Fold:
Amino acid sequence: MSNLGSDHCYQCVAFDAVGTLIHAQPSVTEAYSIIGTRHGAKLHLDEVKRRFGKALSSRQLKLTTSEAEELAFWKSIVQEVIGEVRDPDACFQELYSHFAKPESWRVDSNASNVIQVLMSQGINVAIASNFDHRLHSVMDEHPELQQVSLRCISSEIGWRKPSREFFNNLARIADCRAEEILMVGDDIENDVLGARKAGLDAIHLRPPNESKSEVREIHALNDVLNLVITVNDE
Structure:
């Protein structure tokens, strides 16, 4: 058992998936541009990026969800971003399948070491993500992530971050109390503030392009080890 300061003791460290442990390659907007072009869309990458950002920011996501709702959500996003193509269903299916492929995602270079060290110290490692069932196929084919069997995925449990219910389910899956979990993620609202409201401790993995915030933050996954692991030099 390890601690972060004198008043915290963790049984589990939970990581967000996209933007924290895994990163799209090529980027999401590049994938939309490439696949959309293949199906007849005539959009420059900058326009795809603008449309994608607008589509995500303008949609009001409910805290409840399901596999069917996630599928419908992404269908609407693709239609709004890509626009007219020869076969909209075929275009959507190729994009949807693309993000289920392990090769479409790069695992953070520090992930393997961090996971291995935490587990060697008897600390459970979990995934806590607003992805859907496709995350399993990505994780199961990346050796660094295969061993993480504790997976709290919003579409499967019916609740999205930052809801309290999502984090209650995370604690149930991890089989420990909320205060024994450290949540690590790149989204302040979903990963940090939502977790803290549910009684977890949380830290922001600040993306390089974001300005400093008021919440406690780290800049690389390896920094988790400096916070959580008590090193015994004796």
Notes: Residues 73 and 226 are 38 Å apart (CA to CA). The domain at 2-21+108-228 is CATH 3.40.50.1000 (Rossmann fold).
